[in-house]
Design goal:
The complex is a heterodimer of chains A (about 110) and B (about 110). In chain A, strands 2, 4, 5, 9, 10 and 11 form a six-stranded mixed β-sheet that branches. In chain A, strands 1-3-8-7-6 form a five-stranded antiparallel β-sheet, with no helix packed on it. With about 110 residues, chain A is mostly beta strands. Chain A is built from no helices and eleven strands. Classes of the chains: A mainly beta (about 110), B mainly beta (about 110). The interface between A and B is medium-sized, with 23 and 25 residues.
Chain lengths: ~110, ~110
């Protein structure tokens, strides 16, 4: 049974810092991994999707890496801004359905 | 292009009542999914439609939950009768085929009193 874990559960950093969010999964037989952000009271916004054959994906200040063999992914946020404050969710897919971690709550202090 | 739309955004009902949630996927997306997050837990998969057919309903909690997708367009999720433990946020998502980025709606917050 696939399980997804995200560490840390919460993170508070000053503006401008580079930071890394971690995601681990127990079964390496995945199709893809997706990172989302969720703002309070809002839906999930897809940030990056990494196919199982890929090692990383980049979008602006975000870079996500995938190491399938070790069951790990990281989301790197460069030069963090207060607007990055949100909950970040990692989800893996081995079929059509997504299996989510519990998220990392990020606060970027001005 | 419109995103995934869910109605209502918030529903408050009493135990034993019936509630119907609606989801309008992104136009052209054959795949539609329902997920939910109950208090303090991770978001969990409920079921998956391809067009009007249920492909996987392994996450449906029990037979009080009924999902339909009329004509392969919008979908409804009915809870009848609602119980206290059904409270949570119900998300709908849609995607193209093969497994692609899933686009999520804003969710429906269900409160059963």
């Amino acid at each position: 049974k696939q399980e997804v874990t995200q560490i840390p559960a919460a993170l508070s950093v000053p503006e401008g810092e580079n930071l890394v969010l971690n995601c681990s999964f127990t079964d390496s037989a995945i199709y893809n991994l997706q990172w989302f952000r969720q703002d309070p009271g809002k839906g999930l916004t897809s940030l990056l999707l990494i196919q199982s054959s890929q090692r990383e994906q980049t979008s602006g200040r975000l870079n996500a890496s995938l190491d399938k063999s070790s069951g790990r992914s990281t989301l790197y946020i460069a030069a963090s801004q207060p607007g990055d404050s949100a909950t970040y969710l990692c989800a893996v897919s081995s079929s059509y359905k997504l299996i989510f971690g519990s998220g990392t709550r990020l606060l970027v202090r001005p | 292009e419109a995103g995934v739309t869910q109605f209502p955004s918030h529903s408050v009902i009493e135990k034993g009542q019936t509630v119907t949630l609606r989801c309008d996927p992104i136009s052209g997306h054959d795949n539609l999914y329902w997920y939910r997050r109950v208090m303090g837990k991770e978001i969990k998969f409920l079921l998956h439609f391809v067009k009007e057919s249920k492909q996987d309903e392994s996450g449906m909690p029990n037979n009080r939950f009924l999902a339909e997708r009329t004509g392969g367009t919008y979908s409804t999720l009915k809870v009848q009768p609602a119980e206290l433990e059904d409270s949570g946020v119900y998300f709908c998502a849609s995607s193209q085929d093969p497994p692609h980025i899933q686009y999520f709606g804003a969710g429906t917050r269900l409160s059963v009193l």
